[in-house]
Design brief:
The chain contains 6 helices and no strands. By secondary structure, it is mainly α.
Length: 150
């Protein structure tokens, strides 16, 4: 009996700090989502330059960046938690008043970046150039509806 009580106490003592990590502060969530978006822009920029012929096309760089984008496009969305709606940011109230529309926009970006990464890893330059436009439209549509104008 005493061993059971000690074991239970140890589990509770270890679990308490873990639950604190699971509950990020709203300001931290905003910083995390903004950081993910900043990285998306960083890795999308060179692809845009290559797709538009402004810089020489490098299939290896495109494949690496597109793979990063595929992963980064999954990251910002949990940072749009309801607890963050009153934290100063560029997010419009529509993020929270139209959650299904916002989720649809997030899903579209994720889907389009998956297609971009697949074309890039296949070294399909024409496919990358075509899919670049779809990713750009997904980004722009979300910004048009859910982000304050810069």
């Amino acid at each position: 009996m005493r061993k059971t009580i000690i074991a239970t106490g140890a589990v509770l003592a270890l679990a308490a700090p873990l639950s604190a990590f699971a509950q990020a502060k709203p300001e931290q969530l905003v910083k995390q989502r903004q950081s993910a978006m900043t990285l998306i822009a960083k890795y999308f920029g060179p692809i845009a330059g290559m797709a538009q012929g402004k810089i020489p096309y490098n299939a290896d760089t495109v494949a690496r960046n597109a793979t990063y984008l595929e992963n980064l496009a999954q990251m910002p969305w949990d940072g749009f938690n309801e607890s963050t709606k009153d934290v100063k940011s560029n997010a419009l109230p529509a993020v929270w008043s139209e959650p299904s529309k916002f989720q649809e926009a997030a899903n579209r970006l994720q889907s389009e970046t998956v297609k971009l990464a697949a074309a890039a890893r296949a070294k399909d330059e024409a496919g990358v150039k075509a899919q670049f436009g779809a990713v750009g439209k997904a980004c722009g549509a979300c910004h048009d509806n859910f982000r304050q104008k810069q």
